[in-house]
Amino acid sequence: MNRYDGTVLEGSKGMAVAVILATAVAALAVAQWVVLPEQVVMHVGLTGQADGYAPKWLPPLASTGIGLFGTAWFAVSRAKAGLLLGAIGAAVGVLALVMTGLFS
User: Fold this and answer.
1) What whole-number distance in Å separates Cα of residue 14 and Cα of residue 1?
2) CB atoms < 10 A from the CB of 12, how many?
């Protein structure tokens, strides 16, 4: 058994966390769609220069897919891994917005 096995936040507290996390993931997706340019920086080389790009739709799709999948998993089972995936989805959304601010 590893530290990501098991359940957390049983009862109404867990459902509240799931709803808040899902709302945050959805809000970040909307913010990404509004803020991101048509080409998004996806990779930065060792020199600090952007050298990899992706279309605008990829970061919102990836962060929302990961975040909502994890959040739904957590809402149904209270699995630690689901909560972690939901948080990772939100973090990917924040990272896309930060990268856009740094490299635009």
Assistant:
1) 22
2) 8
Encode burial over 21-35: b for 16+ CB neighbours within 10 A, e otherwise. bbebbbebbeebeee
Contact, 68 vs 22, CB < 8 A? yes
CA distance 22 to 73: 11
Residue 99 falls in which region: left (phi positive, over 0), alpha (psi -120 to 50) or beta: alpha
Q: How far apart are CA 76 and CA 9, in angstroms?
A: 12
pTM, two decimals, is: 0.76
Residue pLDDT, tens place only, 57-84: 998 999 999 999 999 988 888 888 888 8
